[in-house]
Design goal:
This protein folds into 2 domains: 194 residues, MFS general substrate transporter like domains (Growth Hormone, Chain: A); 208 residues, Growth Hormone, Chain: A. The chain has 15 helices and no strands. The C terminus is likely disordered.
Amino acid sequence: MPSRFLPPAGPARGLAAAQLINSLGDGAYYVTSALYFSRVVGLSPTRIGLGLTLAWAVGALAGVPLGRFADRRGPRTVAVLLAAATGVSVAAFLFVRGFLPFVLAACCYATAQTGLAAARQALLAALVARTDRTHVLAHLQSTLNAGLAVGAAGGGVALHYGTRTAYLAVFALDAAAFLLCALVLLRLPAVAPMAAAPGRGQRFEVLRDRPYAVVTFLNMLLLLRMPLISLAIPLWTVTRTDAPGWLVSALLVLNTGAVMLFQVRTASAVRDLPSAVRSVARGGALMLASCAVFALSAADAPAWAAVAVLLVAGGLQVAGEMMQSAGAWQIGFDLAPVGQQGQYQGFFGMGVPLARMLGPLLLTALIVDWGVPGWLLLGAVFLAAGYALGPAVRWAERANSGMVAVS
């Protein structure tokens, strides 16, 4: 039982504890932030969207330099600093009462979050054996979803009361969670700054690594699944099908629950680059099937039939997501040169803020506005990106022969 639900004892379990703590706060933040910025701060939905888009754009640009900073100063030290900085950024939202201060606080939050992700990946690479990284990351993803689910339930309590005090309490708790996360990371073993690999430049080498850039771009296309489950599918369900509104919640529960229960098992099949490439390709095929089934849910049929079709589509979607995630983790680590995991993970992780920034607008136009053809086009993109990763990875292997991480 412990081996299934907990990572191995030692640093991996410490990383999971830190992940759980900050995801509890994030879960509550995610379900309350839009209403907090609207009702308490007094911003219009348009200004909230614009501010967050700007913030994640800044965060995406900050990933590489902060990742390189983690390489040079030590990933544990930088992870601790950025976890604390994230907590301070969340706390700043408590005092924001206008658009410009909101944008500044949001930029600080997105920058710290993106840098923290890169530093923690570099820390994991330093503390966990190469063959175990994907397995440990699967545990961390499962822990993340568990924390988000519990945190979201707590945020739901704040939404129920709907008072200014309740919203402020959520943000204060999220800030405290990140500060506690920093303390947990501080208890992990210290990691010396990483030296650059022989023959590699010292400054932002990743920006000149064209094969890795192609791999990162293809992974970014696959990460469009993030706003798919959080935005496009709920809007599609409510506006384009005859399914009841409560199914939106059921689909989210299906997604998070499946990841908690099955992500580790799914990742166990991924141990090297060839198996990672196969996993991503199969995930792309499943995502195409999922998109096709979602498109079917718009057919003129009884409500119970729409519910059944959407649940099948949601199951295919989360299966594809887990396979893509497991493969992408292995690929992102194994193609990074020795001593440069921080900047490479910062670059590879740019897909997350970019998907958050561009995904909502793109998927709303593609799916909610265009409908069935949009679903089929999106599925084709997932399939093409999943299969194109294979040649891109082999190109990156040839370009970086002898210089990829082996530790």
